Amino acid sequence: MNYINLFRSTLPETALEIAALLVLFVDLGFLRKAARATRIAVAAVLGIAGCLAALWAVSIAGPFSAGNDLLLSAGGSAGVAQVAVLALTALTLLLLIDSDFTRNPGEYVAVVLMAAAGGLLISAAQDLLVIFAGLELLSLSLYILTAFAKQSGKSAESAIKYYVFGAMSAAFLLFGFSYLYGLTGSTNLHEIALAAAVGRAASATPLLYIALVMVAVGLGFKVAAVPFHLWAPDTYEGAPAPAAAFIASVSKVASFALLVGIGTAFFHVFDNLHRGVLFVRFGFPTRYLGLLAPWELILTVLAVASMIFGNLAALAQSSVRRLLAYSAIAHAGYILLGLAFFSWTNVSAQAVLYYIVTHGLTTIGAFGVVGVVERAVGSDRLEAFLGLQKRNPLLAAVMLVLFLSLAGIPPLVGFWAKFNLFAAVLRTSGGALPFTLVALAVLFSAVSLYYYLQVLKRVYVMPATDESPITARPVTVAVLVLITAAVVVLGCFPALLQSWIASFYPHP
């Protein structure tokens, strides 16, 4: 093993870890008696500096292999996801400056950076051991962030629920990984796919199916797919607003990037083995595709359940945080649909990456507005947003743009994200099944417009019970305006983001 190459490949994670130690050193060593606002600002700025250093490191980091086994990839989906994780982490740290939920900002920022390091690992992981280590680093950090508002009973309750569900999902995931290792004799994704196609795992089909189900349970929890979503509404509602924004954006980007990496690794192997063979979805000889047949079926079931339940449950919510949680479950269903009908071309991967990046950006902005209103009114209920247009027209405009983008209204970026994803599904797989599923996704996207408009109705139409102004700090306003501008500009010029994502892939 070449440890110099290992250090180079993990340079972004190393930058975040050094930044976390520096934040703790400065906050606890020099600023313990300073004003809370000063400590929060300094910790956030140092954390953002660490993200910028890690962004530079991503540009020079390369893949890492131990022997012939690739452990960490570089470029492609890994590069896009790592840049997105770091950029979104920096935005959530900027939102921290306007918060007052903790008296320990140094510890909070350090844990955020550790979570981001876990996200970077799983975004590039190509080995089961690396995946599990990265997921646990990310997950343990998220449990702590959820409980960081120590004065809030909801925060503690949601953290306990999150931890219990997380521990159970980790057990399922590890159990599935152990079966995959036992069946294939390797922890490398490419070797596992090869063994499933032509090796001894191909003859152990029942055990292989069990392993895939176990892995789907573990990863389904990470992306809040139905029926493994039960932690999400409570966590989104109870966590501090910046932490909820981080969980809803950064952790989702990293988790879905892991699924993209798994799909890319599998299809790369099958493309090399069976190039020129016509694959007909759900009507193929299973000996050609090995584990892809059940894996695609599992993802399809999770996608349909998440789209239907997430949108229908969101209709009944009176808490905007919980509404955003069920909305995120529905969006996870759309993304899983794209992953279920994946291909070895870059089109599918780029469409999924476009979706998760833009959804993460929009979600941070939505939670930023909710956090400002919640601090001013003391509630995130729908009634708290009554007359927001009169109390703070700028916040109301931000919420209008972001919620319409989440609903997929053109010309905002959310529309193009859905259009690209659904088009990739239809392009990858012809036939009645993908067309029916895309039609179902479009139908429930229309359903989602109703509950987004319920919030906007209170913002713009229904009379306010209190017309006192709601104010936010300039940094928060600047972040929200920046996010809103990005949503509009990327919607009007979708090729900007598409070209940027495509630049991480080698040209044919």
TrEMBL record:
Protein name: NADH-quinone oxidoreductase subunit N
Transmembrane segments: 40-64, 70-96, 108-125, 131-150, 162-181, 207-231, 243-268, 288-316, 323-345, 351-373, 394-413, 433-453, 474-497
Organism: Candidatus Sulfuritelmatomonas gaucii
Assembly description: NDH-1 is composed of 14 different subunits. Subunits NuoA, H, J, K, L, M, N constitute the membrane sector of the complex.
Catalytic activity: a quinone + NADH + 5 H(+)(in) = a quinol + NAD(+) + 4 H(+)(out)
UniProt record, GO biological process: ATP synthesis coupled electron transport
Annotated localization: Cell membrane; Endomembrane system; Membrane
Residue ranges of every copy of the NADH:quinone oxidoreductase/Mrp antiporter transmembrane domain listed in the record: 125-262, 292-439
Family of the protein in this entry: Belongs to the complex I subunit 2 family.
Class in the EC hierarchy, top level: translocase
